[in-house]
Amino acid sequence: MAETMFGAKLGKKAGVFVAVILVLCVFLLLNCYKAPVTGRSQIILVSSEQAAQMGAVAFQELLKKEKLSNNPIYNEAVVRVGKRITRVADTPNYNWEYRVIKGDDKINAFALPGGKIGVYTGIIPIAKNDAGLATVIGHEVAHVAARHGEERLSVGILAELGAAGLGLALSRQDPAVVSAVMQAFGIGVTIGGILPFSRAQEAEADRIGLVYMAKAGYDPREALAFWDRMEEATKNKPHPPEFLATHPSYGRRKSNIRMWLPEAMFYYERSSKAPNLLISLR
Question: Range of 63's domain?
Answer without folding.
Answer: 41-269
